[in-house]
Amino acid sequence: MKASHEYDPELRRVYLEVVDNQLRDNNPPETRVTFDRLRSEGFNETEAKVLIASAIAFETFQVMKSGAPFNHDRFVHNLNRLPDQTFEDK
């Protein structure tokens, strides 16, 4: 069993691919806005994408846990909190 601080590199790759797709498609546009903001705050490209991926992972977990659909407002709220990763389940 992995320790809680370890991560699955394949899962990380998948989440980063989702970030790349969202940036490429500008869907949702808030992902691009967040990426640009994080870059302007001094985060490099990879760091910004990893932060965004953490918000995507949180939203994915909420959807899986509750069975409810993707909550765009919650996702955007949590993007806006980055780099703070104390996400809120609003």
Tell me briefly what this model is.
With 90 residues, the chain is mostly helical. It is built from four helices and no strands.
**Which percent band covers the strand fraction?**
under 5%
User: Could you spell the SSE succession in H and E letters?
Assistant: HHHH
Total number of beta strands = 0
- Biggest beta-sheet profile: none
Give an overview of the whole structure.
- With 90 residues, the protein is mainly alpha-helical.
- It has one domain (9-81).
- Helices cover 68% and strands 0% of the residues.
- It is built from four helices and no strands.
- It has helices at residues 9-25, 29-40, 45-66, 72-81.
- Helix 1 (9-25) packs across helix 3, helix 2 (29-40) packs across helix 3 and helix 3 (45-66) runs antiparallel to helix 4.
- The radius of gyration is 13 Å and the shape is globular.
- The chain starts with 8 loop residues before the first helix and ends in a 9-residue tail after the last helix.
